[in-house]
Amino acid sequence: GSSCEKCDFETDLCEALHEFNLQPGWIRRNGRSGMGPPYSDHNGNDSAYFLSLSSTMQASSATLRTNIFLPTDDEHICQITFHYWISQRSGTLIVRLQKLSEDTITNIWQDSGELPNQWKANTIMINTTEKYEVTFWGMVGTQRQDATVAIDDITFSEGC
Questions:
Q1: Does residue 12 register a pLDDT over 80?
Q2: 101-116 pLDDT, tens per residue?
Q3: In this structure, are residues 27 and 52 in contact, taking their beta carbons and an 8 Å threshold?
Q4: CA distance 79 to 70
Q5: pTM exceeds cut of 0.85
Q6: Of 120, 156, 153, 155, which Cα lies nearest the Cα of 9?
Q7: PANTHER family this protein is in (predicted)?
């Protein structure tokens, strides 16, 4: 099936992302918040909400964890699509995979804003025989003013 869950952050976090999986540093806001760029979500809407991590908030890094997902199977690979924004000054977004049977966390994707100050979309595929969780890890350089990483519209396919 094509049913999937979408976290657009318009009201709060969705089922795949619970409040206690959101570390201090991430703020749910919109482009009108007066907190600097981005001034709109990925659709260009200045009143639509997204998550952002800003160097002005004193936290240099923060993670956003999913709930625990069941193992994927041949028919259902977990596909996670998300939109993200990294400021020109400094910022990195890393997606990590943690299998529950292991202590290791694997970085499966990262971007440091080669095309800064614009929303981009990315899709990652996860195929594993174990229970797992996915972490979005944002980092901003605290010594720089107004460094920002933002995330919007995370979609989880049925295989997640």
A1: yes
A2: 888 899 999 998 776 6
A3: yes
A4: 13
A5: yes
A6: 153
A7: APICAL ENDOSOMAL GLYCOPROTEIN PRECURSOR (PTHR23282), MAM DOMAIN-CONTAINING PROTEIN (PTHR23282:SF101)
